[in-house]
Amino acid sequence: MRPASPPDIFRSPQMNPQRTYDIIFAGGGTAACVTAGRLAAADSGLRILIVENGGQVQDKPVHVQPGRYMKNMMAPEPGIFTFHRTTPSENLNDRGLVGSNASCVGGGGSVNAMVYVRAAASDYDDWEKLGNLGWGSADLIPLAKKTETYQAGPVDSTHGASGPLKVSYGAHETHAGRDFLKAAAEYGRGRKLTQDGNDFFNCNSYARAPKYIDIETGRRSDAAHCYLYPQMHNPNLNIIDHARVVRILFDDDHHAVGVEYHEGKGGEIRTAHASRLIIVSAGALCSPAILERSGIGARPLLEQHEIEVVSELPGVGENYQDHTLGLSPYLSPEDEVTLSILALDEKAAAAHETEWLATGKGLMASNGVDAGIRIRPNANDLEELGPAFQKRWDTFFSRASDKAIAWIGTYGCYLGNNLASAVRPSFTMICITTYPVAVGNVHIQSRDAFAPLQVNSGILNSVEDLLVLRWAYKWARELARRMDGYRGEVVIDHPIFPEGSQAACGDAAGPVGIDAPDISYSKQDDEAIDAFHRANINMAWHALGTCAMKPRAQSGVVDARLNVYGVKNLKVADMSIAPLNVGANTYNTALVIGEKAASIIAEELGIAGV
Ligand SMILES: Cc1cc2nc3c(=O)[nH]c(=O)nc-3n(C[C@H](O)[C@H](O)[C@H](O)COP(=O)(O)OP(=O)(O)OC[C@H]3O[C@@H](n4cnc5c(N)ncnc54)[C@H](O)[C@@H]3O)c2cc1C
After folding, report:
1. Which residue range or ranges hold the Glucose-methanol-choline oxidoreductase N-terminal domain (predicted)?
2. Most buried pick, 1, 193, 391, 468, via CB within 10 A?
């Protein structure tokens, strides 16, 4: 059935007075900006519309000044995130977690921590083995290279020289980053320092942490500013912001022909038409919701909400994965100025902003993350991880030497659950578990596009994931205790160890010696660590997998050309298509998916030069 009313899309001043587009993007986040930017640059005649839930970000300090990321984390400006409360789970002390996605042009890339970590080559090879021809590492690494101008070291077979995004170490190095690498070099535990921890193949070496910050300007380097906005002189490229897509519209032959969206929160419903293609790109939490509201999903769910079934795909919203985020803050010397100040003290932040405006340097040019390691256990570590982890190791990790069990790094500021603790200078050890066993799902609870989604994170449903967190907590604590700036633990953000425990936390006058014995943990101490994680752990906001690129018979939602099964002219392009997890923060992979989508679409539409 064709939509009845004609589209009305003249709201935005940038709008071109056209009523039908060639391509419409439902969601204007990371992948959408890459794909739309590439296509618009290659064919300026292509009529493209992006319908984005959030607002514009161009040159806004909260988005372009890297240090403002801290404020976004501790007290975000209203409207730049959509938060999703997950269903409480007994594995998380009956807590629901807070999932989030950015809500602005550029999506996660406009608000994220700018940490540059790339997947393992074997992650993409595993995707290809599922039947996704053209999605192996040999195809995707060149696309990762294409995204970047690598300012952090030599350009080589995986790092690019002329891509839109600038990647550097930034113009400000935190004490925590320096101390981490110094302690790691001496304490090491069999691991070495490397110049490049992000070549897709190297794993288990300490390294400086590159970031999506342009060393020349000190600005965040993101998909909106580097791919999309440079094309906005083109009147055929249009964005409607503050517009939430309700659903995709289909004709009688199941061709996607338009999108229906709310103009503003609860505002009028409008439609826009596309003659060639619609691309759902609303991120792993919201893309499945758009599909379900459009009649694509599991039949029982659609019928429950009285939605006409257009394509029965039970995999929509399933296979939801993320990483698990463990944070343990440590006290720094009293006189240390850390990034926390940018979130806590607007006057101080203003002074750092002035420096940033004049020089592009200083605290405001930093994301606070200067060192880390994609870590893989050795024989001793495996013994510590214990027999319950062994099967996971044997069946998953042992076969691929580039797969890490966690990324452990340091933030030069307080990141914990108790804002009041942020006033004392501190640094934080972060552990992101890379391939949790946990798999959850996300589904609509109503046809209303503003109704909360039902999100089951699955986090800590498996004991193996708890064991990795326990091991990583201890490992990170040993390193932290040897860092020059260590002055003890921020006790409230650590496990409550039993009275008399050798593992008890507290203030310290300074670091222990490099050769000091490691802390010995009793069985009760281990239980305290596990209890702490169940009560405090969150997800890393690296959602993926909910519109998985897999064969339809295996609960897949899109094929290797990103086409949604059972309908025509409809693709999905964002982190939701990742069929399996990647062992890294997900921005780099989202960019790669955007590039891959651009090349697939260009090929199909006969556009050269993408
Ligand atoms: C706070 C935070 C910090 C992070 N830090 C890092 C990091 O340091 N390094 C890293 O590698 N990764 C990081 N990530 C993850 C990374 O940013 C994401 O994986 C990536 O941006 C996902 O890209 P995407 O295209 O799949 O979706 P997104 O970039 O999330 O884009 C989806 C877009 O769709 C829009 N949308 C949703 N629903 C609708 C609708 N119904 N109608 C219209 N528009 C809609 C959203 O507003 C959003 O703009 C972080 C993520 C967050 C949230």
Report:
1. 283-297
2. 468
Task: Give the pLDDT confidence score for residue 100 in this predicted structure.
Answer: 86
What is the model's pLDDT at position 16? 41
pTM for this one?
0.96
583 lines ligand 1 (CB under 6 A): no
Q: Within 319-462, where are the H helices? A: 340-344, 346-359, 379-385, 387-392
> How far does the centroid of ligand 1 lie from the alpha carbon of residue 314, in Å?
24
Give the distance (Å) from ligand 1 centre to CA of residue 82.
10
Q: What is the pLDDT of residues 310-320, one digit of tens each?
A: 999 999 999 99
Could you tell me if 280 and 24 are in contact, meaning their C-beta atoms sit under 8 angstroms apart? no
The answer to whether residues 57 and 28 touch, using CB atoms and an 8 Å cutoff, is: no
Identify which of 147, 165, 541, 581 to mutate to test ligand 1's pocket (most ligand atoms within 8 A of the CB): 541
Burial of 203 (C-beta count, 10 Å sphere; 0-12/13-18/19+): buried
ipTM of the prediction greater than 0.95, yes or no: yes
Q: What is the pLDDT of residue 13?
A: 35
Q: Which of 184, 176, 174 is nearest to 207 (CA)?
A: 184
CA distances from 607 to 42, 120, 415, 599 (A): 7, 31, 46, 9
- Ligand 1 centre from 54 Cα, in Å? 11
Q: What is the amino acid identity at position 209?
A: A
Identify the burial level of 13 via C-beta atoms within 10 angstroms of its C-beta, where 0-12 means exposed, 13-18 middle and 19 or more buried: exposed
Structure tokens at 175: 């004490």
Q: Is 111 in the pocket of ligand 1 (CB under 6 A)?
A: yes
User: Nearest 5°: phi and psi at 335?
Assistant: -90, 5
Residue 11: predicted pLDDT: 35
Question: Nearest CA to 217 among 209, 208, 226?
Answer: 226
3-class secondary structure, 476: helix
The span from the CA of 397 to the CA of 391, in Å, is 10
**Is the CB of residue 542 below 6 angstroms from any atom belonging to ligand 1?**
yes
Report the Cα 439 to chain-centroid distance in Å. 16
Show the DSSP H helices in 305-446 as ranges: 340-344, 346-359, 379-385, 387-392
Residues classed as catalytic = 542
pLDDT of residue 420: 84
pLDDT of residue 554: 98
- In short, whether 590's Cβ falls inside 6 Å of ligand 1 is yes
* Ligand 1, atom 4, residue with closest C-alpha: 112
Q: Please give the Cα distance from 35 to 38 (Å, whole number).
A: 5
Structure-token pair, residue 491: 């006790």
User: Would you say the CB of residue 102 lies under 6 angstroms from ligand 1?
Assistant: yes
pLDDT at residue 79 in the model: 86
Report the distance separating Cα 308 and Cα 288, nearest Å.
16
Query: Which protein residue's CA is at the shortest distance from atom 29 of ligand 1?
Result: 107
- The response to whether 112 counts as a known ligand-binding position is yes
Q: Which residues of the chain have pLDDT under 70?
A: 1-18
Q: Which of 336, 437, 319, 345 is nearest to 388 (CA)?
A: 437
Give 541's Cβ-side CA count (13 Å radius): 20
C-alpha dihedral (174, 178, 179, 183), degrees to nearest 10: 160
- Indicate if ligand 1 lies below 6 Å from the C-beta of 52: yes
Contacts of residue 128, defined as CB under 8 A and 6 or more positions apart, other chains included, come to 134, 135, 136, 139
Atom of ligand 1 nearest to the CA of 26: 43
According to the annotation, is 64 in a ligand binding site?
no
Is 245 known to sit in a ligand binding site? yes
